[in-house]
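Hey team,

Filing this mostly as a record. A colleague (T.K.) asked me to run one chain through the structure pipeline before their review meeting, and I want the input and output archived in the tracker in case anyone asks later how it was produced. No errors, nothing strange. Just documentation.

Input sequence:
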Amino acid sequence: MRDNVSLNNILWYDVYENGYINGYVKNKASIYIFMETCDERRCYIGSSVKLVNRFNSHRSRINSWGKNNSQNGSPLFYNSVLKYGWKKFKFGVEYIDLPLVTDTINKSILLEREQFYLNKINPSLNICKTAGSPLGIVRNKMFSVNVSKAKRGKKIVKSIININTTHKVITSETRSKLSSRAEGVIVKIYNSNNLLYIFPSMASAAKHFGVSYKTISRILKTGISYVNFVYKF
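Output structure:
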């Protein structure tokens, strides 16, 4: 952790062996930190409008992680808890007093504060360093089923195309990228100039981060970086 990071607003609690803390978790908007006691650089940061619900959700998911094909959650954080145990962690909370405005504005305020801690601490157990982004969150099969059910019966509104719109010229390099497949395309992911991951295929990179293959493919096609990482194929 950087020396200039101020955590004066954080209330810290010890975590018991079964995952509960030696204190009371309020059911209100909060920024929370699960931090390994032996290494302050290894921590997980999140936010929730109802902290007690999120706290109990993490406990439940970790208890079932990997059992009966259950993989719904944050893999780096969950695997660390399973490896070292809950007692190796401490739990920090900053309660946020949100104004009496819309849910959208409240969520924006909460995410802005979460992003502050993500930028300052750079937690190693968060795959994604952008507050509110789903990258790194593994969804189980039922999540996809529920999304599919929610979309049933909804009409797809087609955009009106202006016939005078200039068509984008596709270069030979772009055509080569578009013809690439998941297998055999090595994916290297950097944070600034530091190499973080090497994957043998686009499919394996997508699986690791818990996103669809289309997300990685879109990065290949557009060349646009995603969540502050640099991707090289």
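Quick notes for T.K.: Helices lie at 51-64, 75-84, 103-121, 141-151, 172-178, 202-209, 213-222. The longest helix spans residues 103-121.
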